[in-house]
Amino acid sequence: MTSSELWGPESAERYDSEETEMTSAAVLGATVDFLADLAGDGRALEFAIGTGRVGVPLRERGVPVTGIELSEHMAAVLHRKVDEETLPVVLGDMATTVVPGEFSLVYLVYNTISNLLTQEEQVECFRNAARHLRPGGRFVIELGVPPLRFLPPGQVAVPFDVSERHLGFDTIDPVEQLLVSHHFTRDGEDGRYRREASRHRYAWPAELDLMARIAGLQLERRVADWDGSPFTQDSPKHVSVWRKPR
């Protein structure tokens, strides 16, 4: 059993409409360019493909894409956009589920590796990526840098969004490396807010590099975003690329 929390039907139906920034042309254009360049003339496998936010436009770019997704409800939303034959999705968790064939690219975007709540499962996710990659293939992860620099002594919460329709903050347990994202979203005009929370295990870039080494992968590149900007000590996230030796 995976430790990942399962997205239900209501969350799946709301997902695209609530992630308008992440589905914008500016974000998706750079993301798809980056991934398509790495895939080359090979196939791509997306772990936790969700509603196809990235997988569908990457397939439209001409890259054959297969997905692994834990939630059948998220996969159902994806297959309203594109059929199963065009973009097949295997239901299962990203740490252990195996699909046929070899891939030039395996990728995992938008902090999703943190949905695996134990270090052991995150290591198995790297091993699963390596299992699917052909020699010379790449594994790509997009992940936020833990926001611990924003925590003064005695404080356990960090706000990440304060807007008209949404309040969001993270509470952090640095001993267990667990982060809980709290969301208060205003649904209607009556002033009521919907409360949701999700758990995540955060990991530093250096810890991910060790996981990659355990899986037989080598760090090739780390940048601050899909546009290739340099990763620095002030970067709030990173896009990292590991390569399977030939």
UniProtKB/TrEMBL annotation:
CDD domains: AdoMet_MTases. The keyword Transferase applies. Gene3D superfamilies: Vaccinia Virus protein VP39. One of its GO terms (biological process) is methylation. Residues 45-137 form the Methyltransferase domain. It comes from the Bacteria. InterPro entries: Methyltransf_25, SAM-dependent_MTases_sf. GO terms for molecular function: methyltransferase activity. Keywords: Methyltransferase, Transferase. It holds the Pfam family Methyltransf_25. This is Methyltransferase. It comes from Streptomyces griseorubens.
